Each structure stands twice: as structure tokens, then as C-alpha cells.
Amino acid sequence: MNCIFCKIRDREIPKEFTYEDEDIMVFPDINPLKPIHLLVMPKKHLKDFLDLKDKTLLEKIKNIIQKMIKEQKLEDKGYRLVINGGGTQIVDHLHVHLVGPLGGV
Ligand code: 5GP
Ligand code: ZN
Q1: pTM of the full predicted structure?
Q2: Mutation test of ligand 1: which of 91, 92, 96, 98 has the most ligand atoms closer than 8 Å to its C-beta?
Q3: How far is Cα 65 from Cα 63, in angstroms, rounded to an integer?
């Protein structure tokens, strides 16, 4: 399988991780839309949001996103969470964008 995010996970492409554990990894987007633009993703290759059926993994992703929002001090600065799907995504390996701060706050 030719998945760029699996290659990042497997260290075939060098990358600094903002966070990593046995199930989840977080790293900065290569093309940030805002000063903070992190990608939160399961290590397991799930091709999109409809592939996410494991409640434990869903809970872990939620917990890590909440941790990142706090660590990046975005809780009162404006942030956005985005999951692209249905053909709008560039990379077919499930990931959540955490983007901020957003203007005006
Ligand atoms: P999608 O449209 O699939 O939700 O977004 C994929 C995101 O991955 C894009 O924002 C793009 O900038 C980012 N991206 C693509 N290739 C790489 C890469 O090799 N490294 C990193 N850090 N981000 C990437
Ligand atoms: Zn993958």
C-alpha cells in the first residue's frame, strides 16, 4: 500500500512527532493553514471516517485532541477540527486536522 501517512508512521519519511503513543500519532501539517495545524491520526490505516468503528480508538482520538487543544493553548483562542472525506481528502488515511488560532478571538 502506498500511503504517505503509513510511511511517516514507519519512519520511512523522517518526521518530528508532536505526540505519539501505541495507537495515535500527531504531527504538524506540511502546509499549515494557521500557526498551529496538527494532524491527529490513528497508527492503524483506516481509510476514512466511515472506517472508524472501534469505540476505544474513537475515545483515544478524542482524548488526544483535547490534550492537544490544551497543550497548544487554543482553548480560548479559536480552533477548528476538520475531517475531510467522501473524496475531498488528499490522503486516504484517517486524520483529524486541528487548526488555530482563528482570528478575532
Ligand atoms: P486531507 O485533505 O487529506 O484532509 O489533508 C491532508 C493533509 O496532509 C494536507 O493538509 C497536507 O498539507 C498534509 N500532508 C500531505 N503530505 C504530507 C506530508 O508528507 N507530511 C505532512 N506533515 N503533511 C502532509
Ligand atoms: Zn496509511
Answers
A1: 0.95
A2: 91
A3: 5
